[in-house]
Write a structure and sequence with these properties.
Largest sheet: 8 strands, mixed
CATH class: Alpha Beta
Strand content: 25-35%
Number of strands: 14
Shape: globular
CATH topology: Rossmann fold
Low-confidence stretches: 5-11, 289-298
Keywords: Polyamine biosynthesis
CATH superfamily: Vaccinia Virus protein VP39
Oligomer: single chain
CATH architecture: 3-Layer(aba) Sandwich
Order of helices and strands: EEEEEEHEHEHEHEHEHEHEHEH
Protein name: Spermidine synthase
Length: about 300
């Protein structure tokens, strides 16, 4: 158990687990939404889950990926999904709630994290969610042949602490992703970046090097490179089904903009395509970005 004191000085204990890499994972209640829980790893909020309403997506970037999932196929239609990065299974829960009967594979490197989340935040019994343990890229490249070319959705949300490892940011990696997708399939990538957006621009350039159709969703302040945050990049071998995406993004609590076409070309403008030889980790955020309001934490 992880201990802290609340605003009244009362000692509070939260479920916790030490992961294989030595980082501490805790699950804490969302102080602003009753019944919701937040998974925090090494001080970084990784996932938000509302067990009573798994269609509720709290984190800005997760809501944007959720919109992409909603537009991928007719409402309620089951899909086949691969999630690279498990966290607290927020998006697998969302897919199951909005598209019952979907077949889902979750790849998570830390089996201890999976066991911890399953114990404290159980998955729906009816869900067809299979967990594969291991490195995201290695597992992706060894998926059963029967699934190759048949996946509707791949979500790339891989982090070691607060940074994305370099080997899941390269053109070679995204070609492996393209190899499992159906012709209409969609890949959604969570890209964390800060001032200048050099990493996000490079990721957009890399996706555009591999996929014919690419779009980026972010709030205007991020696009102006004013602060650290998350950009969501979408890509497909087919035209993205995003006619209504601008309206959905504009209606979110934190409004976002969809960048496509010439505007996307200007956004990429000269950014280098990342390869296995040149790829780098995403930049590290300042600790204050993910500051958690605590008192006398122990």
């Amino acid at each position: 158990m992880a201990r802290e004191r609340d605003r009244r000085g009362t000692r509070v204990e939260h479920p916790s687990a030490r992961l294989s890499d030595g980082m501490l994972a805790t699950i804490e209640p969302d102080r602003f939404r009753a019944g919701s829980q937040v998974l925090i790893v090494d001080g970084t909020p990784q996932s938000h889950v509302d067990l009573d309403d798994p269609t509720y997506l709290s984190f800005e970037y997760v809501r944007r990926i959720g919109h992409g999932i909603d537009l991928l196929a007719p409402a309620g239609e089951a899909i086949t999904a691969v999630h690279l990065g498990g966290g607290a299974f927020t998006l697998p829960r969302y897919v199951e709630a909005t598209r019952p009967g979907s077949r889902q594979q979750v790849v998570e490197i830390d089996s201890g994290l999976v066991e911890f989340v399953r114990r404290e935040l159980p998955l729906p019994r009816s869900a067809s969610i299979r967990v594969r343990h291991g490195d995201a890229r290695e597992v992706l490249e060894k998926l059963p042949t029967g699934i190759l070319g048949a996946v509707d959705l791949v979500v790339v949300d891989v982090f070691a602490g607060a940074r994305t490892p370099a080997h899941v940011t390269s053109a070679e990696f995204y070609r492996a992703v393209a190899g499992v997708l159906a012709p209409h399939g969609l890949v959604a990538v969570n890209v964390a970046d800060g001032a200048g957006l050099a990493f996000a621009r490079s990721q957009a350039a890399t996706l555009a090097h591999v996929f014919p159709s690419v779009a980026v969703a972010a709030d205007p302040q991020m696009l102006k490179a004013k602060r650290f945050g998350n950009v969501v990049a979408f890509a497909s071998a087919s035209e993205l089904p995003f006619d209504t995406m601008p309206r959905l993004l504009a209606g979110d609590p934190v409004a976002a903009k969809l960048v496509t076409g010439r505007e996307l070309e200007n956004f990429i403008a000269g950014a280098a395509v990342a390869t296995d030889q040149t790829a780098t980790r995403s930049p590290a955020p300042a600790r204050s970005v993910f500051a958690v309001d605590r008192r006398a934490a122990e």
